Amino acid sequence: MEKYDIEILLGKILSGNATDEEQGKHQKLSQELPEYAKAYKQSQKLWGGAVERISNEDIARDKAKVQGKLNRALLSQIQKHKQKMAFYRIVAAIAIPIAIAVSVLFKLNFQSKNERSAGKTKIYAPMGHIASCQLPDGTMVWINSRSTISYDVSDFKSHERSVQLEGEAYFQVPKNQKVPFFVRTEIANVKVTGTSFNVKTDTESKIFETVLNDGIVLLRSNNRGMKEIKLNPGERAVYRIDRKQFEIQNVDAEMYSSWRNGEIIFRDATLKDLMLKLEQIYGIQVIFEDPEMANYRFRGMFSYNSNLIDALEKIKSTARIDYYIKNKKVWLKNETKKE
């Protein structure tokens, strides 16, 4: 049985759309193929707990089990595509029949673009990739697709440590109470002494956001007169220039930082949310022929893929959506029913 057929079968079983014949096939595969049974159990766990919080331990355990079993079964395919990342899993929960895509995640190795001159360093993550680096003070940084950090080595030898950010990055900063760490952007700045947090800035939409995983961070916009605010673990702060204030909400921080592992976690997100992520990763523009499609709901885990066509094909098979591409624009439309 082909991998694609298995994905569709799993989706129908879990969404309640399987026929009697497909139910029988599912029972037979569960008994005869341990890999299929494992994939079903892990997909069932995600489906049943999608509205609840999935712990980091569950995600890591789930990924390790599926990767270990299915990677061996699909080794020949992986060897042919070492420069790609496949979807790990998409779970679509929308008004039309649902399918779950379960496939293999394998690590992508690539060279980020680094520029150095006279003590100044700039690191850029290419489109569709994630870069990582270690700063002079030991801080680990993950840089999202089409994002840049820059710093001067001399900034780590004085009374403070600081970097400039354009786009999105995740920081793990070692503690140093005497020398604070700053992330500076065009919209707002972050100050910490040691913590883990995600920062995203969009100069086009003029929105800045920070999500704190642990520790404490202090935020201040570049608007004169704004007071410094404190963020606690599990909180997300969003600053919009037009509103001139921070809005704070409690969130699952892992949802906003899982991208550093090549994953995007969705909890009842819309198709529009998913497409916005693909626009960021691949530098495309997505257009919905039917505006209602933007409201289709998704739950689950979606992994980076260096091939846009593969990503769109997986979404097509999952959500019964068709597409065509023209001049870096992706047009989405409802799949035409075959007579």
Automatic annotation (TrEMBL):
This is FecR family protein. PANTHER family: PERIPLASMIC SIGNAL SENSOR AND SIGMA FACTOR ACTIVATOR FECR-RELATED, PROTEIN FECR. Residues 125-209 form the FecR protein domain. GO terms for molecular function: sigma factor antagonist activity. Keywords: Membrane, Transmembrane, Transmembrane helix. Gene3D superfamilies: 2.60.120.1440, 3.55.50.30. Residues 264-331 form the Protein FecR C-terminal domain. Signal peptide: none annotated.
